[in-house]
Specification:
The complex is a heterodimer.
Chain A: E1 6-15, E2 18-28, E3 33-38, H1 44-51, E4 59-64, E5 67-69, H2 74-79, E6 82-85, H3 97-102, H4 111-129, H5 144-157, E7 162-166, H6 174-189, E8 193-198, H7 201-207, E9 210-215, E10 218-224, H8 230-238, E11 256-266, E12 272-282, E13 286-290, H9 297-304, E14 311-316, E15 319-320, H10 330-335, E16 338-341, H11 345-349, H12 356-359, E17 371-372, E18 375-376, H13 378-391, H14 408-420, E19 426-430, H15 438-453, E20 457-461, H16 465-471, E21 474-479, E22 482-487, H17 494-501
Parallel strand pairs in A: 3-8, 3-9, 6-7, 7-8, 13-20, 13-21, 16-19, 19-20
Antiparallel strand pairs in A: 1-2, 1-4, 4-5, 9-10, 11-12, 11-14, 14-15, 17-18, 21-22
Helix pairs in contact in A: 8-17, 14-15
Chain B: H1 6-31, H2 36-48, H3 51-76, H4 84-101, H5 107-136, H6 140-163, H7 185-189, H8 205-222, H9 224-234, H10 236-241, H11 246-263, H12 265-273, H13 284-294, H14 299-322, H15 327-343, H16 345-363
Classes of the chains: A alpha/beta, B mainly alpha.
Pfam family, one (chain B): BPD_transp_2
InterPro entries (chain B): ABC_transp_permease
Membrane topology (chain B): Multi-pass membrane protein
Amino acid sequence: MTVPAIELKGISKAFGPVQANKDISISVAPGTIHGIIGENGAGKSTLMSILYGFYKADKGEICINGTKTDIPDSQAAIAAGIGMVFQHFKLVENFTVLENIVLGAEDGGLLAPSLSKARKELKELEEEYELFVDPDKRIDEIGVGMQQRVEILKALYRQAEILILDEPTGVLTPAEADQLFRILDRLRAEGKTIIVITHKLREIIENTDTVSVMRRGQMTATVKTAETSPEELAELMVGRKVLLQVDKVSAKPGKPILEVENLRVFDQAGVERVKGIDLTVRAGEIVGIAGVAGNGQSELLEVLGGMRPGQGSIKLNGEPLALSGHGSDGQARRAQHIAHVPEDRQREGLIMDFHAWENVAFGYHRDPAYQRGLFMDNAALRADTERKIEKFDVRPPNGWLTAKSFSGGNQQKIVVAREIERNPDLLLVGQPTRGVDIGAIEFIHKQIVALRDQGKAILLVSVELEEIFSLSDRIAVMFDGHIMGERLPHETDEKELGLLMAGVAEEAA
Amino acid sequence: MDKMPKWADVVLIPLISLILAAILSALVILAIGENPVEAVNLMVTGALGSTYGWGYTLYYATNFMFTGLAVAVAFHARLFNIGGEGQAMLGGLGVAIVCLYIPWPHWSIALLAACAASMLFGAAWAAIPAYLQAKRGSHIVITTIMFNFIAAAFLNYMLVNVMRPQGSQDPATARFPEAVHLPTFQSMFSTAENAVFKGAPANISFFVAILACFVVWALIWRTRLGYEIRAYGHSETGAVYAGISPVRITIVAMLISGALAGLMATNNVMGEAERLVLNSTEGAGFIGIAVALMGRSHPFGVFVAALLFGFLYQGGAELALWTSIPRELIVVIQALVILFTGALDNMVRMPLEKLFLGLRKGAE
């Protein structure tokens, strides 16, 4: 048996109470492509950051080519022959390709000798691995696929023998992704060891030799790719933990409240995030949007909540909503009886330095009930806050504390109380229980179901499949800006959803 | 939990910063061979020892209250308005136009009109950088600095070519008519047998400044607009979520800020000089930044900090007059206070926060 290129033994890492990595051991043979797959937050990136010297493991050891190696920082990782290609490239936009490759590996104070030496070596590397780029183009002049090649060349220029790629296809088109994997094949043929971190099942199945599955900070399995199937990986990835059950009677969907047709959303950089989706939410039902984070769910929610512009058509109770310009902001949406529990309560849903009683009006602060002449009626606000604190059991029950003094669960209760108590026609809910303790999760779920039972429409976005299963009356899966399919929760399982979430089309599954 | 009690944040940190600045200033005075104790003595008697001294101290403090409030309001929207200087200059132009070209029957009506005009001109001067920031993303710090220079050049042009009386060699407007002269503290508080504030420039606009402090307090903490300004200042994404337009808040906050800076002209132009001269603001726009920082952007803090800087200004002038300490050293002392209370805030804050955390842990 050959000596493994990388061997991790019993790596553990905790951030406060969160165990990001728990006793992880893997061994990667030289000259292979090894995939690491898992849901968001499974601990993949933490593990790779430990390997690259960004974090220090609490326990465990790292062996490179059979010798125990300490990696206190990224310089040490480079010295040990490890190269990393990050999901978000670390390139200087207004430098040329050549300058970026040399950056941090200059031979001396003068740049010219380093550059000419690099130019020569770059040429050799290009020919050896068929990795062609124009060394004199500026980074902002070349496409994303090319930029990634520059990152790979940067690693190779520093004599990397082990290459780690974090979500390498996240920003690539399918054609660019194919090219990337051809390059990786070539690198493998030249004896390099490659680790690819991804949540896309198909890439793993098609391109790797072995695959490790991570879930909740643990390595649940390492298998030979040839001996596994997408179904098995999906199951390993999502897990079969008992669902957190929510007591609810079956839904009695009424008339359509929200009708979305051919909705497109572009982000600030002009990238299309939502690529023409259709969706209907009826009165008295909870529609859950499942999907790996970053597949357009956030943008969908933000357009509906008036936080960003979109294109297409959205109707509420049959009336069209403005999607850009006048009448499309959060105030207009609230006036149209859309309430919104945003995905990020700390950056969006609450002002962390405001008192709880100020936050209880946030977004509804123009409500006439909160005004008294020229001024805000702070007494009315505080009375309202006391009511909500009691009804939603916010602890500690003190409206004078700032939002940041509450625990995550109680912060979320403040947001949920504020939004649900407006008695909206449509409630948008994003990641309602992210970073929330078990007790509060149950409470928040109950409130959402209670609102549904009053005949309100609810659109739920969550990356937690358990949550989607336990709350939704209908599930739509989003991948890459599209809705891959809709399922009824009792007619599907995590395995099928996992495949849809990973972008595997229905016939393949 | 907050890292330390509120009183430490509001009182202790500025106090320690001041003491540090004082110690360093004392060392500098020692180094040039003067006695720091005597210097402090001179400053205190010069600025606070007589109604004359108070008259100057309060006059300067009035200027700093206006510019300090201007910077504070912008701070609440997380905007750094460095253009108080230019906005106050333009405010002066507004005051001069109102006072020179309209015949007023009584100073009180003239004061109201001058307030309106100075606010309008100051706000207009802040409007362009505000628009550029809100719509084009041009950084407000850069544009407001630039607008200070443009304001100075513009005023230069106006005074030399447009408003200078015929035959005058001085780049200044004519003196304002008697009817618009504001009551000074001397005329307000002197009795037949006891003349106070004699010859000092403090005038009724000091009370305008105090009124402005109350108005700003009510605006920021009691109105819907203040709520939106503070929300936007704390979190832009939060503001977008709540349907608060970042563009609107940026522009409105800067207009208010510019108006407050412009208001300063009621004091220095209308109350003191009684005509518009070149460089009438004398750097008060910049002192406003230190005042707002030291006052934690709270109107009461601004009031106290403005008094302190008024004292430093007047005390410094006395020092230069009566000792061989050069005028430049006064600037050094003032700069040290600004440096410690403003820019080096974290130097005092961090160790203090650690201390309080340690104390709290010890108590638990």
